[in-house]
Amino acid sequence: MINKRRSTAVLIGLLAATALTGPAPALADEEETPVEPPKVELVLDVSGSMRARDIDGRSRIAVAQQAFNEVVDALPEETQLGIRVLGATYRGKDKKQGCLDTQQIVPVGAVDRTQAKAAVATLRPTGFTPVGLALREAARDLGTGATARRIVLITDGEDTCAPPDPCEVARELAAQGTKLVVDTLGLAPDEKVRRQLLCIAGATGGTYTAAQSAEELTGRIKQLVDRARDTHTAAPTVVGGSAECANAPLLGPGVYSDREAVSEHRWYRVPVRPGQELRASVSVALDRPLNPDHGVLLRATATDGRELVRGVDAGSGRTDVVSAGLRWSATEDPADGASPTPEATAAVPATTVCLVVSNSFALRPGTQTTPGMPVELMIDVVASSPAPAAPDLGRGWVLLVLLTLAGLLTGLVAGLLTRWWVATWREN
């Protein structure tokens, strides 16, 4: 009965606080177990250059077909797989027509293994290399939803049909808000191909791998298909930061995604009540060439512009991401130092904290400026840590006094012991 009364009081307090402070903050999707199956599409280059016999003495297309067959046989039951090809049907020399040559030969869904392997076995290297168009169509094949999707691109050459440029297409897809990751596999040791595939992967948070043998290609595709299942998580909630705090979106605890242009400031608001601590971090993906010495700054300010705390750089171990984080506690604590009850905390209006993300990026000449760079913002509001009990060694002057007294006592004892030892030595 007591617990029921307490829960009722907390609910009434929360409703009252909502009425006093305005609309409730947006909350990120907290679904832990995605209801959608993991989805992945393999995109295979079947252009004329795939005839080259430079992988274990076999043609590139033969090695790719073998890898696809083994991947289909080992496909997890819950994973939905699709296969799209490019440059597979048009044998003419009309570039305009050849650059439209991309087809989905296996629709995304539960795989009929026999049918899928038969479709792959009939492929013969033929035409042009419209990588950008194939990526755009593969994204449509996978559709939209709340969970992450993956594309695995296998090619031996750079796009011969731009526009659309495949790297710009990758940025375009990433900017749409759906969590779409493109992993790339290169079958030829060519520097231009490597740079293009790195750019595609980097724009979407994927990986690039150079496959030099049949075993490497098969093993890597299997890893990526398995990763589609392992990374099958709900995508961050898409949010749009504003140019000032006054009309910034009001956010609650969760993970959010946004886009920020070079030298731009993006503002967000978070309500924090007395006795609570705000913890926030931001990561910006470096999805295009930048000049060196770049950085990201995360700050928390009051609504009147006063800075509350400045974020600290936080290395993530990745060279294609820069991060920063901060912590800030509301200062209006009870006078007796006791932790506030949930009823009391809910009844006190929250302090609106403004979070601003800024950057010191400088793009290299000729680099596309739009869309903005991918931003992931993580927000949490927890009970603030209690102040340490006395003696408070965290206070600088207390620690200094204690160290001084300890030094004096140590010196006095050392002096007395030295005099006693000298006197004893002289007597002997």
TrEMBL record:
Domain VWFA: 39-228
First and last residue of the signal peptide: 1-28
InterPro entries: CLCR, VWF_A, vWFA_dom_sf
Source superkingdom: Bacteria
Keyword line: Membrane, Signal, Transmembrane, Transmembrane helix
Native species: Micromonospora halophytica
Residues spanning the membrane: 397-422
Protein name from the UniProt record: Ca-activated chloride channel family protein
